[in-house]
C-alpha cells in the first residue's frame, strides 16, 4: 500500500492512497542477456564526446515523447545529480515556448531529438538537420544522432516491458 | 540523392551490429524477423532499410504475396497466420510509441504466441530496426547505398 506520506512524494499532511504500482511485464534484460550487454556497450559508445548535460536533456525529451516512465525517472534524477536545474527539466516538455532557458546549441539538439524520435510523421527536415549541423561538428553530430537513437531504444524496452519507475537511484547504472 | 553524411562512430557501428546479431539470434525465426523489420521500416519511412530487408526477406524465402501486402497486413486475411499477425501488431505498437503505449491486448496476444525468451528477443528485433531506421533516415542514406 502506497500513501503520500510513506513515499515522501507529497507534503506528508495527507494519507490519500496512490494507485498500486503496476507489475512489470517482462524482465527482458534477464531473458535476453546478450541483448542487454550489447545495449550497454552501445549506450557507452554513443555517449563518447557529448556534453553529459546536453545528453541528459536529449534523453529526457525523447523519453517524454515516447512516454517512458522508467527512463524519465532515471534521466531526470541523473540530470539533477549532475547539477542540472529543476527549471530546465520542468520546462523541457514546452521548450519551444521556453527557449530562453536553453542555449542555441541545446535548442538545435532538442529540435533534432524530436525529428529523429517522431519518424512516423515524416522525415528529418532539412532545416532541422542543417541547424544541428551548424552547432555540432561532424563527429559530434554523429554522436548526437547515436545518443538519440539509443535512448529511443531504451524507451522501447522500458515501455513495452512496462518497467516500473520510482526506484532509480542517481548514478545506479553509471 | 546523396547522403547528408555517411559518418558514424566505429564504436557505435560495431555495437549496433552486435546488438542486431544478438536480437536476431535469440529470436530464431529469420523470415518473421524480416517481416517485422520491413514493417517497422515502412512506418519509419526508411528507404535504405526497406531496400535492404526486402532483399534479405526474399533470400529467406518470404513469399512475395506477404511482402506485397505487408503494409495492409490487418486487411490481408490469411496471407499472414496468427503468429505472424501477433508479431506484426507488436512491432507496430513498439514502433509508434509517440502516440501511446503498447496496449495490453497487443502485448498479451504476442505473449500467447511467443515464450518469454522469444518475446524478449522479438521486442529487441523491433527495437534494433527502429535504431537503424533512425541512423539511416537522419543521415539520409540512399536506398541501395553501399556506404553507410
From TrEMBL, chain A:
Pfam families: CMD
Comp. bias (Low complexity): 1-20
Residue ranges constituting the Carboxymuconolactone decarboxylase-like domain according to the UniProt record: 33-114
Region spans: Disordered: 1-24
GO molecular function, one term: peroxiredoxin activity
Cited InterPro entries: AhpD-like (IPR029032), AhpD_core (IPR004675), CMD-like (IPR003779)
Highest taxon of the lineage: Bacteria
Stored Gene3D superfamilies: AhpD-like
Protein name, per record: Alkyl hydroperoxide reductase AhpD
Organism for this UniProt entry: Streptomyces poonensis
From TrEMBL, chain B:
A Gene Ontology molecular function term of the record: peroxiredoxin activity
Highest taxon listed in the record's lineage: Bacteria
Pfam families: CMD (PF02627)
Domain Carboxymuconolactone decarboxylase-like residue range list: 16-93
InterPro entries: AhpD-like, AhpD_core, CMD-like
Protein name per its UniProtKB record: Alkyl hydroperoxide reductase AhpD
Amino acid at each position: 500500500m502506497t500513501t503520500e506520506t510513506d513515499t515522501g512524494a507529497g507534503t506528508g499532511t495527507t494519507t490519500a492512497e496512490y494507485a498500486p504500482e503496476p507489475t512489470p511485464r517482462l524482465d527482458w534484460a534477464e531473458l535476453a542477456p546478450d541483448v542487454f550487454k550489447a545495449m550497454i556497450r552501445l549506450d557507452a559508445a554513443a555517449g563518447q564526446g557529448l556534453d553529459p548535460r546536453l545528453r541528459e536533456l536529449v534523453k529526457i525529451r525523447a523519453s517524454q515523447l515516447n512516454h517512458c516512465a522508467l527512463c524519465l525517472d532515471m534521466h531526470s534524477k541523473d540530470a539533477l545529480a549532475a547539477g542540472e536545474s529543476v527549471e530546465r527539466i520542468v520546462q523541457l516538455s514546452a521548450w519551444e515556448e521556453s527557449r530562453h532557458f536553453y542555449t542555441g546549441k541545446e535548442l538545435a539538439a532538442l529540435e533534432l531529438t524530436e525529428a529523429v524520435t517522431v519518424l512516423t510523421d515524416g522525415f528529418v527536415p532539412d532545416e532541422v538537420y542543417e541547424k544541428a549541423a551548424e552547432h555540432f561538428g561532424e563527429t559530434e553530430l554523429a554522436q548526437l544522432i547515436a545518443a538519440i537513437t539509443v535512448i529511443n531504444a531504451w524507451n522501447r524496452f522500458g515501455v513495452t516491458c512496462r518497467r516500473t519507475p520510482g526506484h532509480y537511484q542517481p548514478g545506479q547504472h553509471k | 540523392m546523396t547522403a547528408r553524411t555517411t559518418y558514424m562512430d566505429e564504436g557505435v557501428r560495431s555495437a549496433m551490429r552486435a546488438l542486431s546479431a544478438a536480437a536476431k539470434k535469440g529470436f530464431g525465426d529469420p523470415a518473421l524477423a524480416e517481416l517485422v523489420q520491413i514493417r517497422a521500416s515502412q512506418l519509419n519511412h526508411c528507404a535504405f532499410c526497406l531496400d535492404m530487408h526486402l532483399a534479405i526477406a526474399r533470400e529467406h524465402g518470404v513469399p512475395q504475396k506477404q511482402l506485397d501486402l505487408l503494409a495492409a497486413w490487418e486487411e490481408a486475411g490469411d496471407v499472414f497466420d496468427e503468429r505472424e499477425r501477433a508479431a506484426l501488431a507488436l512491432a507496430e505498437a513498439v514502433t509508434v510509441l509517440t502516440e501511446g503505449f503498447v496496449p495490453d491486448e497487443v502485448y498479451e496476444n504476442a505473449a500467447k504466441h511467443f515464450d518469454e525468451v522469444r518475446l524478449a528477443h522479438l521486442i529487441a528485433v523491433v527495437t534494433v530496426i527502429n535504431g537503424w531506421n533512425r541512423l539511416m533516415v537522419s543521415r539520409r542514406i540512399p536506398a541501395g547505398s553501399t556506404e553507410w
